[in-house]
Amino acid sequence: MIFAIISILTILGILFRETAVRFLETQPKPAEGARLAFAFPAYFEWLGARTKSSLRVETAQKTWTAFEGWCAKYYPGWTKWLFAAFILSFAYLAASGLFFAVFISRGMYGFPLVGHVSLGGLFALLLAGLLMARARDYRFDKNEEAVFERFLCPIFKNIPRAFVRKILFWAFAVFGLLIILSALLSMLPILPADAQKTLLLIHKYTALGSVLAAIVFIDITFIPVPRP
Q1: First to last CA, the chain
Q2: Alpha-carbon distance 20 to 170, whole Å?
Q3: CA distance 77 to 103
Q4: What is the pLDDT of residues 167-223, one digit of tens each?
């Protein structure tokens, strides 16, 4: 129950945060010295229009074009299908895992569990390949490393999106490795019941962390900034 509440609140919270930032980006800039007010009625009106527009065929075509452009640059040729398989496997693992953890008290079972375990192995292999292929592109340079020394509070401003993407990439990688490790260790028959429970909690919360990191990464990478 606690995990279900935390999952719902954190996912809704991150979705609200990302959409609220997008909404504020569409608003006219206030006069110098004035603060930009957040109006919930205008936000919900904008969110409804944005949701409606996202269901159009044109939006799906733009999304596919953005995906193809991303693959042409970073995953050329047949490697784009491995990237697509990575996305689909993670999407199924996240959807099935969160659904059963939040809404089904007895946990995952049956064919969904078989699919979860099977695609979990595929996800592990593809994540390893992704890290080997893209780790160099997300390395931190000296100027970015200095930013960590100034992280004194959880609210930061004026951080480049490229730097945020690097943080999210490595956060996702760490979460992914913990997900895989906790799943593998939980299969060992030598561990006591208490250890199994601890591993299950680690598996759940790192999976939730990976979903949150993926949501923000997708938002700042693939979704264009709306214009006023």
Answers
A1: 41
A2: 25
A3: 40
A4: 899 999 999 999 999 988 888 777 787 788 888 889 999 999 999 999 988 888 777
Query: Which residue ranges make up each domain of the chain?
Result: 1-12+82-139+158-228
Structure tokens at 135: 């780790």
What is d(CA 164, CA 151) in angstroms, rounded to the nearest whole number? 13
Q: What is the mean pLDDT of each run of 10 residues along the chain (228 residues)?
A: 88 88 76 68 86 79 79 85 91 91 82 89 92 86 53 51 85 94 84 82 92 89 62
Structure tokens at 127: 């994540």
Q: Scanning the structure block, which residue is given the tokens 């693992």?
A: 93
Residue type, 113: L
At 49, the amino acid letter reads A
Helix-, strand-, coil-residue percentages of the chain, each rounded to 5: 75, 0, 25
Give the burial class of 215: count Cβ atoms within 10 A of its Cβ; 0-12 exposed, 13-18 middle, 19 or more buried: middle
Q: Place domain 1-12+82-139+158-228 in its CATH homologous superfamily.
A: Transmembrane di-heme cytochromes, Chain C (1.20.950.20)
Q: At what angle do helices 110-134 and 161-186 cross, to 10 degrees?
A: 130
